[in-house]
Amino acid sequence: LAEAPPPDGGVAECPAGALFCDDFESGTLAKWSQQSTKYDLGSLEVQGTTVAHGLLALHAAASGSVGMSNIAEVEYDFPARQPPLAIRANVYAPVALTNFTMVRALYDGTSHGFSLGGDDNTTWVLTENDATVPDHHSDLGVSAGQWHCLELVIDAAGQVTAFVDNRALAGPFGRVSAVAYSAFLVGGARTVFTDTNVFVDDVAMGPSRLYCPQ
Q1: SS3 content of the chain, % helix, strand, coil (to 5)
Q2: 15 membership: H or E segment, kind and range
Q3: In angstroms, rounded to a whole number, what is the distance separating the alpha carbons of residues 104 and 88?
Q4: CA-CA distance, 53 to 36, in Å (whole number)?
Q5: Is residue 81 within 8 Å of 185, Cβ to Cβ?
Q6: How far does CA 94 lie from the centroid of its chain?
Q7: Which of 50, 51, 76, 178 makes the best surface tag, with the fewest CB within 10 Å?
Q8: Nearest-CA neighbor of 152 among 139, 136, 141, 164?
């Protein structure tokens, strides 16, 4: 993994060597391959009211019926890539994430990959392969009303580690499916709750751990 950030927290919003990054300062979602909002109501906008750094950040909101996979997300598609691979984003939720509301995901374009969000107990959870294998729950609560640094790192040996605010959430553990990944999603990537409301900033993907700007 990459070396720890310097003591002053000097981490670039778009780190050197990054394969993709978006701090939303362009004011558009032009860097993203797809935008999805469903089922009942949903919106994706770049706004300047709630930001982690700079002047702008993404706001993803969805509303729908209980039990539906209500979605408001942006997706970056890239040529299929085997690990090592790491993703990170700063995420803010006005209300604690629950009911398996997933706010960041890395997939192979089908059902193999990882999602990170809040479980039924409003604690962080990492799910693999659309939760068809055992989830990795944490005792770390999803605190509402503050920014959280979310990271997922898969090394060259396929060992997976997830971090929240520089604290190990899960791992390292061996992934179940040795796939090449091709899709990176942020926003309200999946929920069975009626509403999703999250803000996202400082998104990046690279070949090693990237950390988050402080």
Answers
A1: 0, 50, 50
A2: none
A3: 9
A4: 25
A5: no
A6: 16
A7: 178
A8: 164
Q: Is 208 in a helix, a strand, or coil?
A: coil
Nearest one of 77, 37, 50, 21 to 198, comparing CA atoms: 50
CA atoms within 13 A on the CB side of 33: 11
Q: For residue 19, give the nearest of 104, 79, 109 by alpha carbon.
A: 79
d(CA 83, CA 16) in angstroms, rounded, equals 18
Rounded Cα distance between 204 and 16, Å, is 11
pLDDT tens track of the chain, all 214 residues?
A: 445 565 545 688 888 889 999 999 999 999 999 998 876 677 899 999 999 999 999 999 877 655 556 678 899 999 999 999 999 999 999 988 877 778 889 999 889 999 998 887 888 999 999 888 888 888 777 888 999 999 999 999 999 999 999 888 898 999 999 999 999 999 975 555 556 789 999 999 999 999 888 7
pTM of structure:
0.90
Nearest residue to 151 (alpha-carbon basis) of 143, 160, 142, 159: 160
| CA neighbor of 22 nearest in space, from 202, 207, 213 | 202
Q: In what order do the strands lie in the sheet with 123-128?
A: 34-38, 71-81, 181-190, 101-107, 113-118, 123-128, 136-141
